[in-house]
């Protein structure tokens, strides 16, 4: 079980492709910083390879004015939720 932290916008298609190839069946993806834009319904297929195991950091959503524009399949977590995700996953990898 690995937690993947992604900070790249969905325009960084190569990063999303590399991440999808490394993403395991028990893994989870947390969108932070500019990756929050991928949590919007208009981002389309950017999150499809991750099978609904995706969260987005609330503080980063608010900072970008996106708090009201999150796809229902993406869970919104605050900093405590971020901490909980790190505690429940064996390893963590950052995609920058």
From TrEMBL:
<dbReference type="InterPro" id="IPR007215">
    <property type="entry name" value="Sulphur_relay_TusB/DsrH"/>
</dbReference>
<protein>
    <submittedName>
        <fullName>Sulfurtransferase complex subunit TusB</fullName>
    </submittedName>
</protein>
<dbReference type="Pfam" id="PF04077">
    <property type="entry name" value="DsrH"/>
</dbReference>
<dbReference type="InterPro" id="IPR027396">
    <property type="entry name" value="DsrEFH-like"/>
</dbReference>
